[in-house]
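BUG: 3D viewer hangs when loading the predicted structure for this chain

Environment: internal workstation, default settings.
Expected: structure renders.
Actual: progress bar stalls at 90%.

Input used:
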Amino acid sequence: MRIGGLSPHISVQLNGPDFLNSQVKPKMTHKQIFFLITFLLAGGGVWGQLSIDAVSTDYTIDFEGTISGVSIGAFAGAGFEPTPSGGRLDSDAWSVTGWSNGDLVFGGTQITGNTDYTRGISAVAVTTGGIYSFTGPGSNSLGIQPGGSDWAL
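Structure tokens produced before the viewer hung:
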């Protein structure tokens, strides 16, 4: 294909003969492995979206600060709403299914206290199904605990 006299092309360079013998060794923390396994085994689903406004720009959702259109302040496990207050996630960016308190559609609201969507902050293991803000040394994370009829097979 030629565009304006130019021929677009793709160049791939393999780094020497050892490339074919190399192995990819992923480095995941125990926390990441636990979340991945939990997510894969869960019966429900979580969908999120982030508007990408600029190329060559890193975007990180770390649940510790404000991300325009995703969260306001540090996530505190306080629920979801389309115009969130502190500690909540923006439901325009999140959809969640598989909970006994009903599904969260994009733009919906789930902020009633002590429900599947508002389990709060925890620094220890939990057994009650729901969405939490798990905290650890210097970090917050979105926590999903399946249980009973919540996000279970």
